[in-house]
Amino acid sequence: MNFSQRLGLFLLIVISVGYVYFSFFHGKEIYPSKPNQEESSAYNPLNQQNQYKEEEKSPETGMKNVKIFIVDKSGKIRSVNRACDKQSEKSCFEYAMKELVSGPTKWEKSAGFSSEIPQGTKVLSVRESAGNILVDLSSDFEAGGGTESTYYRIKQVIKTAKANTSSPVYLYINGRQANVIGGEGLMIKQPLSEDSLDD
User: For the chain, what are the domain ranges?
Assistant: First the structure.
């Protein structure tokens, strides 16, 4: 083997070693990986809602999409999504009611959403049977706000209940069926329906 052949073999070895080194040990520097979702985009509630819908289609995830109804900045009652973990929650209906009385998230508040349900309202119990569901709220639910506010908070409860079950739902306040609510004496027809507040 003459000098030029040895030189050619040496250069071939150097090139091969260099290729292997940069391909396997510094691949991330030469070919940066695609950023993940958290790095590439800010929080987007629409993305979150789509994620929940996908999870709902995949029973193996144990997630279920539930709806709660809050008030947008124009004063209309609108639904927003929450993800219920069926493995950790006793009932996704009860979870929806607890999320409702908890009110909008920080992001929803920054987007102008609010709730007419008074702070401090608690879900005392949710009793589900084969025939109906009884939702018992604390007396804070009736506190203040006047007739319009009371009307809207009851509507929030009605819409949330009907969006998350097909069973008849009855509203109780501190253990008593709520046929009249608030200082203005707003009448409620039960079980809850879209017509419950109609005269």
Answer: 1-33, 41-187
